[in-house]
Amino acid sequence: MADVLSVEAPAGAIALAETSRGTERLHRAIFIGLAAVLLVAPYLAYPVFVMKVLCFALFALAFNLLLGYGGLLSFGHAAYFGMSSYVCAYAAKNWGLTPELAILSGVLVSAVLGLAFGALAIRRQGIYFAMITLALAQMVFFFSLQAPKFTGGEDGIQAVPRGKLFGLIDLTGDRALYYVVAIIFMAGLLLIYRIIHSPFGQVCKAIRDNEPRAISLGYRANQYKLAVFVLSASLAGLAGATKAIVFQLASLTDVHWSMSGEVVLMTLVGGLGTVFGPIVGALVIVSMQNYLASLGAWVTVVQGVIFVVCVLLFREGIVGVIAKKIGRPL
After folding, report:
1. Which DSSP string corresponds to 243-285?
2. How far apart are the first and last CA of the chain?
3. Among candidates 266, 200, 240, which has minimal Cα distance to 64?
4. Which of 169, 176, 174, 178 lies closest to 51, judged by CA?
5. pLDDT (tens place) for every residue of the chain, 330 residues total
6. How far is C-alpha 320 from the chain's CA centre?
């Protein structure tokens, strides 16, 4: 009996290691393929459209980090996305900062906002946590509406200069700006991938799955939840600041509650708790908004129908279903 166990245990460990290596190879191939697609994308599609997809994909990835791997449902992520957009636009237009400094200032503000809001929100769980994040985000929306000297009120901040990256690279042209946005997106994706597969990410997943057990093992759950909340808010801010530079505009749409709903929709359609799902979800939703714009208000109806179909037929999301079929996490 002992001999049988001694043979089976190493065999199981070898099989597990081989599966892990196979998954790593698959992910590496996907990253390489994605990078190749990004290189040729501006020649196959309108660069501004692709940049919009990348900005919202990064936003969805940030949200998925919080919900998919931290188990925290936020209904107020538009606060960090939108406020970062305002700060970046204001810094670039009124202070004359270069694009990288303007984006960095937006990210810093979203991180501070995430720290303050997260410290309040994590005191509660479940639907109470979600409602607190929604209430705090609505406070940001009303501030944006009532502070026209900073946000421009209903007009927003328009004609934001794209400037020169590091004072050298002119971002006025769409192609040059596209590659900067693509680099920012890939950097954000790689950072999130590293966070997910780090010991910190493993602890976050343990807290998501069974918080009392994680606490009994000595982990300070609230500290981990606050850390992942701030990381998610910062990355959402990075997406919002980049979008402000791309469209040369920061508006109330960016902080409206519907923006928080859109990012939830993107994440669920693509695949909650998957690495690449939010990218696919963002591509689907942004494409619908762009190519079905002629339908007017009916676009939201179409989005609702697609969401219902995905929930009923693809409960794991598009990428989640694919991952289940091939037996590999994506």
Report:
1. HHHHHTEE-GGGGSHHHHHHHHHHHHHH-TT-SSHHHHHHHHH
2. 38
3. 266
4. 178
5. 444 444 444 655 565 566 677 778 888 888 999 999 999 988 888 899 999 999 999 999 999 999 989 888 889 899 999 999 999 999 998 888 889 999 999 999 999 999 999 999 988 888 889 999 999 999 999 999 888 888 888 888 898 888 888 878 888 888 889 999 999 999 999 999 999 989 999 999 999 888 889 888 888 989 999 999 999 999 999 999 999 999 988 888 899 888 888 899 899 888 888 889 899 999 988 888 888 777 777 777 877 787 788 777 777 888 888 888 887 777
6. 17
Domain ranges for the chain: 47-256
Given a contact cutoff of 8 angstroms between Cβ atoms, the answer to whether 194 and 31 are in contact is no
Q: With H, G, I as helix, E, B as strand and everything else as coil, classify residue 75.
A: coil
- Of 209, 243, 182, give the one whose Cα is nearest residue 59: 243
- Residues sharing a CB contact under 8 Å with residue 17, sequence separation 6 or more, in sequence order: none
